[in-house]
Amino acid sequence: MWEKTHMRTRVIVVTIGALAALWASGAAQAQRPMPPAWPYAQPQLPPGVVPDQVPAQATPPYRPPTPPDPNAPPPVLLQATGSTLRFTQEQVSNSYGPADWFPESHAPMPDIVAKGKPPGARACGLCHLPDGRGRPENAPLQGLPRDYIVQQLHDFQQGLRHSADPRKANTGEMENAAKALTDAEIQEVAGYFSSIRVPKYIRVVETGMIPTMRIQGEIYFPVGDGQQEPIGTRIIETPEDVAQTRMRNPRSGFIAYAPIGSVKRGEALATTGGGGRTTACTVCHGHGLKGLGLVPNLAGRSPSYLARQMYDIKLGTRRGAMAALMGPVVANLTDSEMVDIIAYVSSLEP
Fold it and tell me: What is the distance between the alpha carbons of residues 347 and 204, in angstroms, rounded to a whole number?
């Protein structure tokens, strides 16, 4: 069994090397249309409108903690559900030492994850959370293959990963953060996040109508006015508990609203290729989409993130070595087929 798996992994690696240059050059030269706005949590633009590239988010300067003012009222302390700890909102959002609600649930964080590396890189744990689950606006890192994480950080360093929607600024911040890291720091970060396993925290709900949403911080939040809007050809990922999400509680999950019937249709595409529409996902990502060698495990991951990667690859803005294999896989998929595949993949147990 090991020999078969090892051989398949070697074939994948060799194929990546053969396709990388061809895919990168061809995709880069093609005129790129805009992707759908929903994976990037951006307002939908009229057809044919291409916005300007937004600059990368500026990394906040490091400021040492200031002594408490004895004359000031005591700060409001927050407590995430399930945690015994209390933090202020300022501590929760600290770019260079964010709150860790459940330090007992994971190994000690490397300094880069816990504190960042000013001025170039904020703490990884701020956006991706201490256990690597991330949120819809960024990447879930938990349990990814170590070598895959290393490769992606190298791709960011080399300018090979950009957003197909130029309004998404945190992709540029990731490039800057990766460039601030040494090879040793990259290995440390990759080893930490790859070692973490977390339970399923995304609940896929098929529906034709969803609560009216607003976008804040590249996350969809319910307006709360009792009104509804059609799901359309989208997957909308929104917090199970808005207050807990604002506190960056990693144990508070997300609902992924998807079109009716999408999971079943996606299963057929992902497991069989849909009669030649695409390549079955299981060929490279393994049984149950739990990964194979350096090919990442997809089961149960954020649908927003999965969709962004599929569109970034399809439209040629993600051009690293691993993208070379995925390019032909997504090239002919329609928006509806991509939604179906992603709904199915996100519904699986990690």
Answer: 6
In the three-class reduction of DSSP (H, G, I as helix; E, B as strand; rest coil), residue 7 is classed as helix
Phi and psi of 155, rounded to 5°? -65, -40
Q: Which of 235, 228, 226 is nearest to 202 (CA)?
A: 235
241 by Cβ neighbours in 10 Å (0-12 / 13-18 / 19+) ranks as: middle
Domain spans in the chain, listed from the N-terminal domain onward: 89-194
Reduced to 3 states (helix: H, G, I; strand: E, B; else coil), residue 255 is strand
**Residue 200, pLDDT above cutoff 90:** yes
Reported as a single tens digit per residue, the pLDDT across 43-97 is 999 998 999 999 887 888 888 878 888 888 999 999 999 999 999 999 999 999 9
Report which secondary-structure segment, H or E, holds 216.
Answer: strand 213-216
Residue written as token pair 């040793």:
184
Tokens describing residue 17: 């090397």
Q: Which of 6-15, 66-75, 182-191 has the lowest mean pLDDT?
A: 6-15
Structural class in CATH, domain 89-194: mainly alpha
